[in-house]
Amino acid sequence: MQVEEIYARVFAELRPTLATPVISVRFYRFTSLTSNIRLVQGELRVKISDLLSDAPLTVQEALAYILLSKLFRQSPPVEMMSHYKTHLADIQLTGRVHTIRQERGKKLLGAAEGKYFNLDLLFRQINETYFEGLIPKPRLGWSLQRSRTILGHYDASHHAIAISPLLDQRHIPALVVEYVLFHEMLHIKHPVEQKGIRRRIHTRAFKNEEKAFPGFREANAFLKKGLY
């Protein structure tokens, strides 16, 4: 059975009153387990990570339900979500995703020295003060995107920390920048935990140590105001 046949069958099941469109399913060399779907001029276009090209047909079917449900703005069947997530967890555990991200991905960062804050200096100070200098130094830099929703990000595949340049402004308290960087450094100390299909990004140990940061409440209160 071709993957296109699966999408045609699921499409007909979810939208029995609509004519089944021309379906194109392609696998791409993405740097993650990315999948997306679009309905363009009567053609259903599906793009899937090649990490899933050898997935069993039952997994392809589960993904079809998930993507088509998303397209039709409805919740996918619970059993399909569970089956798909279980397969993703198996891929994660083999380390394939991490390896692919290292081989294919490029982490583009700006310089660590900004106009008002130097991330290299802040990292050194935070590392010595709160981690006894034990956090291995990652690549540090101001993000190339001025994101308001992602103020900091640790990329484990490239061992790099990016901080939004919106925080590199005169009116931003140093405590806020230090806290955001401290948060990302905690991701190095407390890696993501994978238990079955569940991934815990912020573990209990992570949260407890984060709350112990001096100025934790003040920094969060400032960030909640969105004054950056």
What is the topological layout?
Elements: H1 3-14, E1 22-28, E2 35-40, E3 43-49, H2 57-71, H3 78-94, H4 96-104, H5 119-130, E4 139-142, E5 152-155, E6 160-163, H6 174-189, E7 193-195, E8 198-200, H7 204-211, H8 216-225
Parallel strand pairs: 1-3, 4-6
Antiparallel strand pairs: 2-3, 5-6, 7-8
Helix pairs in contact: 1-2, 2-3, 5-6
Overview of the molecule:
The chain is of the alpha/beta class and 228 residues long. The chain contains 8 helices and 8 strands, in the order H-E-E-E-H-H-H-H-E-E-E-H-E-E-H-H. It has a 3-stranded mixed sheet with strand order 1-3-2, with helices on one face. A 3-stranded mixed sheet has the order 4-6-5, with helices on one face. Strand 5 (152-155) and strand 6 form a beta hairpin. Helix 2 (57-71) packs across helix 3 (78-94) and helix 5 (119-130) crosses helix 6 (174-189). The longest helix is centred in the middle third of the chain and has 17 residues, at 78-94. The radius of gyration is 22 Å and the shape is elongated.
Task: Give a summary of the structure in a few sentences.
The protein is 43% helix and 17% strand.
Q: Radius of gyration, Cα only, in angstroms? A: 22 Å
The total beta strand count reads 8
Please state the oligomeric state of the protein chains shown. single chain
Structural class: alpha/beta
- What string gives the helices and strands in order? HEEEHHHHEEEHEEHH
End-to-end distance, in Å?
53 Å
> Overall mean pLDDT score?
89
Number of helices: 8
Q: Rough shape?
A: elongated
Q: How would a textbook summarize the main sheet?
A: 3 strands, mixed
| Unreliable stretches | none
| Helical proportion, percent range | 40-55%
Strand arrangement, major sheet:
1-3-2
